[in-house]
Amino acid sequence: MLLPGAAALSAVVVAGLQPPARSQTAISQAVEIGVYSGRHYNTDKALYREFTRRTGIKVNLLESKDDALIERLRTEGNRSPADVLVLVDAARLDKAADLGLFQPARSASLMRDVPLNLRDSRGRWFGLTRRVRVAVVNPKLVNPATIRTYADLAKPKLKGKLCLRDSKSVYNQSLVADQLILRGEPATRAWVRGMVANVTQPFFTSDTPLARAVAKGDCGVGLVNTYYVARMLAGDSGNADKALAQQLKVVFPNPAHVNISGAGVTKSSRNLEAATKLIEFLASPTGGRGYAEANNEYPLKGYGNNPILKGFGTFKADGVSAEQMGARNRQAVNLMQTNGWK
Ligand SMILES: [Fe+2]
Predict the structure, then answer these.
(1) Which range of residues forms the domain containing residue 276?
(2) Among 226, 215, 247, which Cα is nearest to 310's?
(3) Average pLDDT of the segment spanning 286-293
(4) Are 121 and 196 found together in one domain?
(5) CA proximity to 223, closest of 178, 166, 308, 183
(6) Domain count, the chain
(7) Between residues 6 and 237, which one has the greater pLDDT?
(8) What is the pTM of this model?
(9) Omega of the bond prior to 4 within 30 degrees of 0, cis?
(10) Distance, CA 69 to ligand 1 centroid (Å)?
(11) Confidence at residue 17, expressed as pLDDT on a 0 to 100 scale
(12) Chain centre to alpha carbon of residue 30
């Protein structure tokens, strides 16, 4: 007969999990880690609890806006209680790295689980989920088949039909950085000017109102992150938004610009091993799936099992390095501001 402890252990093994390694047991004695996260989804908390259950490492979570967390870490310096910083968007991760807020983590499993183009080449941060900036089309106003690439949004026949979020949006900044890398400055400048010439509505300050405007026919086409449409379709913001989102056709430009949320170990952390373990868990196929599903995002590899995302179909990622997008952020912002992207 199995003792209760042994039964619990065998249940873990049945679930496909490894029994704790010796080093895990050692650090599980009393270790607590602080996590500062720019993500704010209840399901993230369930994942941190699962991590604690597996490792014994307690997670103290502080959620706030990305830029506020960066500022806080700068102010706290070496006294910061944060061991892991989770941020949304490659440009912010790169900014935090530039400010010296991360220390490199060495990990064979992170090398394996996080594709090369979705992590910092010096190990300071690692992508955990993927999101795609897509065209949402109102088929009554624009034929979705005419939108095949981001460049198509600059075509003069879309005059008065294109709606864009403003250039303060880090998502748009990263998209422009992405195009700078893929197409070079002259082509990207011409593209930005062409799009700006097609915009007659005021620039939007967030993605959801933009998606609503396209659905209502105020605009024929706009650019938003996939998860905003998915949230509306899921009914998370009510039946009215759900009905609106059902009017939209999601079009993946080919190839598609992929951005990330990601995390790194803070410079101030004295718990490098435990902090790295948390990032490893979140990047693993198990933890990563949960992290992506929490916000209707795509996992690091493949398309996941979210039925709403499956309904959008598949996309071909353009493969641009998240690190390079961050490095081009300033050039992208400058190009947007000097070419009329408000
Ligand atoms: Fe967002």
Answers:
(1) 21-129+259-294
(2) 226
(3) 90
(4) no
(5) 166
(6) 2
(7) 237
(8) 0.89
(9) no
(10) 16
(11) 35
(12) 32
**Cα of 191 from ligand 1 centre, angstroms:** 24
The answer on 186 and 122 residing in a single domain is: no
Give the Å distance between the CA of 66 and the centre of ligand 1. 11
- Arithmetic mean of pLDDT, 95-100: 97
Domain identity same for 165 and 205: yes
Kindly report, residue by residue over 183-230, the tens digit of the pLDDT: 999 999 999 999 999 999 999 999 999 999 999 999 999 999 999 999
In a 10 Å sphere around its CB, with 0-12 CB exposed, 13-18 middle and 19+ buried, how is residue 303 labelled? middle
Helix axes 329-338, 90-98, angle to 10 degrees: 120
Q: How far apart are CA 280 and CA 284, in angstroms?
A: 6
Which pLDDT score, from 0 to 100, does residue 29 have? 56
- SS3 state of residue 90: helix
Whole-angstrom CA distances from 151 to 143, 163, 194 are: 15, 15, 9
Give the Å distance between the CA of 328 and the centre of ligand 1: 20
For residue 74, report the distance from its CA to the centre of ligand 1, in Å. 23
